[in-house]
Design a protein that fits this description.
Length: 252
Amino acid sequence: MVSATLEQTQVDLAAVNSQLTSANAQEIVQWAADTFQEGLVMSTSFGIQSAVMLHLVTQIVPHIPVIWVDTGYLPSETYNFAEELTQRLNLNLKVYQSPMSPARMEAKYGKLWEKEDVESLNLYDHIRKVEPMQRALQELKATAWLAGLRKDQTNHRQNLGYVNRQGNIYKILPILDWNSRDVYQYLTRFDLPYHPLFDQGYVTVGDWHSSRPLMADDQHERDTRFQGMKQECGLHLPQTVGEEESLNSSSL
């Protein structure tokens, strides 16, 4: 099988999104596998409901590269959950981390997550998440990326299609229209686990220092992340020129 390249595979986004309107999640994954072949990868955070996408995709593309960006600040429960799912689903896991260790970052910038400004959080996310993900996509020669984003998660995601273009890569979102009930029914049907912190009131989980359980006065589940100051960590936002330039930077 020959790996697809962006030069070989050009997608008419309007046409394909119209075509996929009547498709189910499995059919969207199959379309992506047929279209992008060995250029197709997926990402996971090993978050609360990550078992859904991992199971859904690997039932169709068993050996797909699964990118996991390990920030170095994940809860112990996440590392254990990752090990459980990797073994159970026989994942072809590709772990990526920032070249800047947590200790070095804290020595240079302090505890960025404790600074009450979005700029500090953005810097943290770029160092620990965005740069490793972009490097993973480059090294794996990815042309398309499967992700488990849903419209009901953030304002940005409400405007996405099943197939999108982010920088030089296509992003495919098979469960874009799913809601919490759809996720629950899938987990139940295939006897898949939630992240262990779900039982402690977490509805979304990232780094230990920037995630907390859902409270009665929270307006949205994403209020439990990033001190409620931002909804996106940057992995699923369009790349800026600065982000692209940073991939070749040795400053980290």
